[in-house]
Amino acid sequence: MPTPVPSAAGFRFTDPALASIAAKIAAGSRLDQGDARTLFETSDLMGVGRLADAVNRAKHGDVVTFAANQHINPTNVCILRKTCVFCGYARLPKEQGAYRYTLEQVLAEASHAADGLTKEFHIVGGLDMQAGLEYYATMFRALKANFPHVHIKALTAVEIAHIARLEKKTWAEVLAALREAGLDTMPGGGAETFSAAVRDIIADKKLGGADYIGVHRTAHGLGIRSNCTMLYGHVETVQDRIEHLQMLRDLQDETGGFLAFIPLAYHPDDNELGATLDRRGTATAGTLDLRMLAVGRLFLDNFSHVKSHWIMVTQPVSQVALHFGVNDLEGTVVREKIYHAVGATTPQAMSLEQLLRLIRGAGKVPAERDSFYRVVRRYDDPAQDPAPGPSLGAPPLGASA
Ligand code: V47
Ligand code: SF4
């Protein structure tokens, strides 16, 4: 059931259509696709933000969470390198810049976690013919042996389906084997925009939207929770966005297995699509970023968490997003490669100190969470903050792999 927002009906809107949406929310009624269209198209962006903020406050108060995580991208070799035209990260096996980490390299990269502050590895990569079940199972076992306190959030639905095809196993068999090796949860990557027409243009040959949902359904059935995403700001229409959100909401109704929704802003640099669209150097508008997050919060009434990925939308936009329905920030991200391959100019990591300043600057209370979004420490009083320094396992800003 949607969380009722008693005060929402009292807002003043410049677009009267928002008043009827506010009344629906206040009554605890579900928004339909027509409402979602209104939210996407209205000129009253601040009204959309106020509604999303009210819903978010009803669920989370003033608390904004973050996790101390570390991204590891073990291979950029990908069989879809030529067909995912929005991706600047992948390489063919013999192409310049192609890499596949050995186990030793993965462990060396993971060694930032030895300080005990990193609590989660986020592991994703390309669809590499040489990286099958054994590659990942061995990696996860070794990571758990060396860093038993670190949660493993790894492998998108697309990677799970790829491994299943390579190994001639079902999705469920692959997921069960990986869980046995140490997989805890799955990230939400690979969703892009589900619409078949959009996929034909930006990700022809990639696992389709229904199968992305199918892999997540299978994972949830096995007790493996996951995140979900939507890539926006490329060729998709408003209707495509709405249908994508509808598919996510439907699966959440069915399984309750999604932890968070993370809209991902398309970056046009250093990828074929950006050149085709003549969009190089033109990131998504901050207003679209805020609207996407707010509509996600309002339409996905059965989700607890909406996350802003500051690496993609910049830190200032993420800070404002905390008033547009967002209750979680992608945490300290050590050595992020995927977005920096396509033009992200943000730092590759934020220290604890910077993260606390960003959240408090929005008038919110920062709290570190675990990978299941349980608060493990609130930072109510700045006087009690840890001394500034290398925090959460982060290297100096701008470090690259
Ligand atoms: O699926 C690739 C995106 C995603 C570009 O689950 C691009 O906690 C923008 O899903 N412009 C992978 N985006 C990353 C991802 C993610 C990130 C943070 C947290 C979580 C989570 C998941 O990156 C891919 C694709 O949608 N991507 N190229 C690009 N040019
Ligand atoms: Fe491969 Fe993923 Fe890039 Fe597509 S987006 S080319 S599947 S790494």
Q: How does this structure look, described?
A:
The protein has helices spanning 16-26, 33-41, 45-60, 103-110, 133-146, 157-167, 171-181, 196-202, 209-221, 238-255, 272-276, 286-299, 310-313, 315-321, 352-361; strands spanning 63-72, 120-123, 151-154, 226-232, 258-265, 305-308, 328-334, 365-369, 375-378. The chain is of the alpha/beta class and 401 residues long. The protein has two domains: 6-60; 63-381, TIM Barrel (Alpha-Beta Barrel), CATH 3.20.20.70. It is globular. Residues 335-340 and 390-401 have low confidence and may be disordered.
Helix and strand topology:
Layout: H1 16-26, H2 33-41, H3 45-60, E1 63-72, H4 103-110, E2 120-123, H5 133-146, E3 151-154, H6 157-167, H7 171-181, H8 196-202, H9 209-221, E4 226-232, H10 238-255, E5 258-265, H11 272-276, H12 286-299, E6 305-308, H13 310-313, H14 315-321, E7 328-334, H15 352-361, E8 365-369, E9 375-378
Parallel strand pairs: 1-2, 1-7, 1-8, 2-3, 4-5, 5-6, 6-7
Antiparallel strand pairs: 8-9
Helix pairs in contact: 2-10, 2-12, 3-12, 4-5, 5-7, 6-7, 6-9, 9-10, 12-14
The chain binds ligand V47 and iron/sulfur cluster (SF4).
Summarize the structure.
This protein is of the alpha/beta class. The protein has helices at 16-26, 33-41, 45-60, 103-110, 133-146, 157-167, 171-181, 196-202, 209-221, 238-255, 272-276, 286-299, 310-313, 315-321, 352-361, and strands at residues 63-72, 120-123, 151-154, 226-232, 258-265, 305-308, 328-334, 365-369, 375-378. It folds into 2 domains: 6-60; 63-381, Alpha-Beta Barrel (TIM Barrel).
